[in-house]
Amino acid sequence: MRTRVALSVVSGVSMIGAAFAADAPKPRTIPIFAHHPNAGWVLDRKIGTDDLQPRPGGGPGPVVYDKAHPYVPNNTPGKGPSTYRVADLSNPILQDWVKPQMQKYNEEVIKGTIPFVILMFVAILLLCAFPGIATWLPDVVMGAK
User: Fold this and answer.
1) Is residue 130 part of a domain?
2) Which of 36, 61, 40 is nearest to 51 (CA)?
3) Residue 72 located in a structural domain
4) Cβ proximity of 79 and 72 under 8 Å
5) Handedness of CA 41, 42, 45, 47 (dihedral sign)
6) Which of 35, 65, 103, 115 could form a disulfide with 71 if both were Cys (CB 3.0 to 4.6 A apart)?
C-alpha cells in the first residue's frame, strides 16, 4: 500500500513538474532576414544596373530594358531618379502575339512619367514656398515643442 501511495505521489509531482516546465516562458528569438543585422536595405544586384543577364550558354536571353529608355534601379547614385522598366520589344525571344500588349504597357509607363515629374516639381515648389508643410504632421503626432 505504501509503495502505491509513494508511486502516486512521485508520478503526481512529476506530472506537475512537467506541466510547469512546459508552460515556462521560452526565450523568443526574432529571425534576422537581412544580409547583416544592422542593414535595412541590401543591394540586390551585383552585375551593373540590370539584374536580368543573358544565359551562360548563349542565346537571345531574357527581355531587358529598352536602350532608348534606360532602367535606373533604386540606390544608383549619380544616375538620376529610379525608373520603371520599359521592355525592349526587339528581343527575338518575344512571340508576335505578346508584343502589342507589351507595347501598350510600355506606352503607359512612358506617358505616366510626365505627370509624375510635374507633380514632383509642384511638391518641391510648395515645400519651398510653405516649409511648414513638411513639419506639420510630425508636429501634430509628436506634439509641437
Assistant:
1) yes
2) 61
3) no
4) yes
5) positive
6) 65
Per residue in 71-81, pLDDT tens?
Answer: 877 767 777 77
Helix 132-142 to helix 99-129 angle (10° resolution) is: 80
* Cell, residue 121: 516639381
CA gap 58, 135 in Å, rounded: 54
Can you read off the three cell numbers belonging to residue 82?
A: 529610379
Q: Please name which of 66, 60, 59 lies closest in space to residue 88, comparing C-alpha atoms.
A: 66
Cα distance between residue 79 and residue 60, in whole Å? 27
What is the pLDDT, as a whole number, of residue 127?
Answer: 92
Residue 50: closest CA among 20, 11, 76:
76
Within a domain: residue 116?
A: yes
- Which range marks the domain in which residue 121 is found? 99-142
Can you point out the beta strands (E) in 19-133?
A: none
Q: Output the pTM of the full model.
A: 0.48
* Residue 70 region by backbone torsions, left for phi larger than 0, else alpha for psi between -120 and 50, else beta: beta
23 domain residue, yes or no: no
User: Tell me, what's the pLDDT at 85?
Assistant: 83
Number of domains, the chain: 1
Give the pLDDT score at 116.
Answer: 85
